[in-house]
Amino acid sequence: MVFMDLPLLLDCYVQFCTYRTAYKENKVLSLEDATWFCPTTLLPLGDFLSELDKSKYVLPKNIGVKNYISTILEKHVEPHKVDDTYIPIMKASKFDQTHSEIICDLISKNMGIAEKTSVKLAVGELLDNVDQHSRCTSASFMAQRYEKMRFVEVSIFDNGITIPGSFRNSGKYGELTDPDALKKAIGGMSTKPENTRGHGLPTFISVLTGALKGEALIVSGEAAYYIESNNNEKLYKLDKKDGLSGTLIGMRIPLPMKKADVYEYIK
Amino acid sequence: MNTSSKKILVRTSVAKDLVTRNAATEFFKKLKKIKSNTVVLDFTGVVFMSRSFADEYIAQKNSFKTDINEINMPDTVERTLDAVSHVRTTRIEVPRLRAEHLSI
Q1: Domain assignment present for B49
Q2: What total of structural domains would you count in chain B?
Q3: Taking CB atoms and an 8 Å cutoff, what residues of chain B touch A105?
């Protein structure tokens, strides 16, 4: 299903939802004809497939795509191959300092990323959020450089309690809808008591859209948020069937990456 | 008067990419066990510090009873710490957004 007026990053999530709905309707999911998955589709799809019996899905005929899917179905994956075009799937029960360092190291070495500090400042806040807030049992990371389309896509997924779930658990803000909780997180409100907390997501968004001129999608529970470099932003309330048991963050950074004084964008 | 000082290599003790807030907390737990008047933190080989690590580093350092002397701090780390120390208590504006319903 393609929604003509949706941002392409959000369309990647729509693609995942379409597969999930097809499975619920048919009790089997055929990926046979799939020839391409972007990271923002692949990571939640992998998590969804990992809950299914192998007899309930058909892997793609395309060997490359099949290998992608097979890799992400494994419980723990250390990046096994590195080159200039992608950072392969990394999957673990959680992302802590050790995993974060591996990912930062890969960002430093691969993909011809020119603005390493900017990318690490953006991605670092997401990795720390997984560590601090998600209470996940599975987290995955992947990045892909699309040379012809001139962008790098980076995605992080965790199957944790979601941002709205974390806000509700904190008891700090009373009853909140999922979009309202996501809005608070983006606006620097924190579930923690210290008044210096809550700057992680705002810094991620500021560095990504300001310094790197990129775009971001955050899907968490039954809410989604999209922002692009001109600060055009949208908040969505998703139907329950279209929600996510976890948090997915996708970002696209245009190439060549812009040089900027990234420290000005720290919130 | 005891004027002892102990030098710690941050890269060895934590990592060259300092990312998570928990890593900063754990680092200072280790530092608190050191019996010395001054702790010298040598940042040789460190290449990156995240905003979250920086915020926790500043908070922990502010409440740390022993003197800390930082040496060989790379420009990227120094500028991150400087930026975070200026904005960490600043309130951020919650966006005035109304949620649109999206049915897939």
Answers
A1: yes
A2: 1
A3: 17
